[in-house]
Design brief:
Blueprint lengths: L2 H16 L3 E12 L2 E12 L3 E5 L6 H7 L10 E9 L2 E2 L7 H7 E4 L10 H11 L6 H14 L3 H4 L12 H13 L5 E5 L7 H14 L4 E5 L3 H7 L2 E6 L2 E7 H6 L4 H7 L5
Parallel strand pairs: 3-8, 3-9, 6-7, 7-8
Antiparallel strand pairs: 1-2, 1-4, 4-5, 9-10
Helix pairs in contact: 4-5, 4-7, 5-7, 7-8
The chain binds adenosine-5'-triphosphate.
The site of adenosine-5'-triphosphate has 12 residues, from strand 2 and helix 2.
Pfam family, one: ABC_tran
GO molecular function: ATP binding; ATP hydrolysis activity; phosphate transmembrane transporter activity
Protein name: Phosphate transporter ATP-binding protein PstB
Length: about 270
């Protein structure tokens, strides 16, 4: 993309973002693991075409909040979520919601790349097949190719689609997992420390990819790296001891945060 077009795309995205279209809205979200309360009445929204970074010291509840957004906490015994979370205008905790469909709309990429022990092709085609997105082999081929393109992996794997996904390098596996999430046409992508198992070069590639994906998706990323939050996100939310301390424009958050706890954390004074 040339500089001019890139600036135009950035500008258009900025305008979209400033219109404060919320893709997801979280109101008074609390989470309990048995008797233990891990989140306290968190009010946090996910903006469209925006990367939102969740930061804060270990154990502050970042992953717990992330998992609320596609009901991954349902899979944890003893975990109870209260409050309200809406995707567009739909309450995702409504008992009538189809959770499998929800998790296709709100996809997830985990800390450790977790491709299925199947071929690269099958890793990506599985979701579209079970969700009935592809009607023919040609449809599937097209989805596999376009998802790999979107994840910046096509050129590296196009000649080895039938080889196992687990044979790829760690960074390639993570981009495969991103391609797998993208293949079911999600609206939101959740990423839980997606680069923590990657080397700096693979990390840079995934960060670049996150930057590009923002054009089409809303992204929420948990990260321990302040540099990463500053590089990839437009909004940042700071958690501490299960509370949302502050949510702000990333630029402001890293230059002039409203809350002293944010300042302390960013300056490495705790956590
Ligand atoms: N499955 C679980 N069962 C019981 N307690 C849990 C579970 N998962 C998380 N917790 C607790 O909930 C709190 C928040 O944990 P969470 O993993 O959300 O924090 P985090 O900010 O993502 O931490 P980290 O940065 O270390 O990954 C912690 O006190 C943690 O011990």
């Amino acid at each position: 993309m040339n500089m001019l077009t890139e600036t135009a795309v950035e500008k258009a995205l900025e305008q979209k973002m400033n219109a404060t279209a919320y893709k997801m809205v979280g109101r008074t979200v609390s989470v309990y693991y048995g008797e233990k309360r891990a989140l306290f009445d968190v009010n946090l929204n996910v903006r469209e075409n925006t990367v939102t970074a969740l930061i804060g010291p270990s154990g502050c509840g970042k992953s717990t909040f992330l998992r609320c957004l596609n009901r991954m906490n349902d899979t944890i015994d003893n975990c109870r979520v209260t409050g309200e979370i809406k995707l567009d205008d739909e309450d995702i905790y409504d008992p009538d919601i189809d959770v499998v469909e929800l998790r296709a709309r709100v996809g997830m990429v985990f800390q450790k790349p977790n491709p299925f022990p199947k071929s690269i092709y099958e890793n990506i085609s599985y979701g579209p097949r079970i969700h009935g997105i592809a009607r023919s082999k040609a449809d599937l081929d097209q989805i596999v190719e376009s998802s790999l393109h979107k994840a910046g992996l096509w050129n590296e794997v196009k000649d080895r689609l039938q080889e196992s996904g687990t044979g790829l390098s760690g960074g390639q596996q993570q981009r495969l997992c991103i391609a797998r999430a993208v293949a079911v046409s999600p609206e939101v992508i959740l990423m839980d420390e997606p680069c923590s198992a990657l080397d700096p070069i693979a990390t840079a590639k995934v960060e670049e990819l996150i930057h590009e994906l923002r054009e089409n998706y809303s992204i929420v990323i948990v990260t321990h790296s302040m540099q990463q939050a500053a590089r990839v996100s437009q909004r940042t939310a700071m958690f501490h001891l299960g509370n949302l301390v502050e949510e702000n424009d990333t630029d402001k958050m890293f230059t002039n945060p409203d809350d002293p706890r944010t300042q302390d954390y960013i300056m490495g004074r705790f956590g």
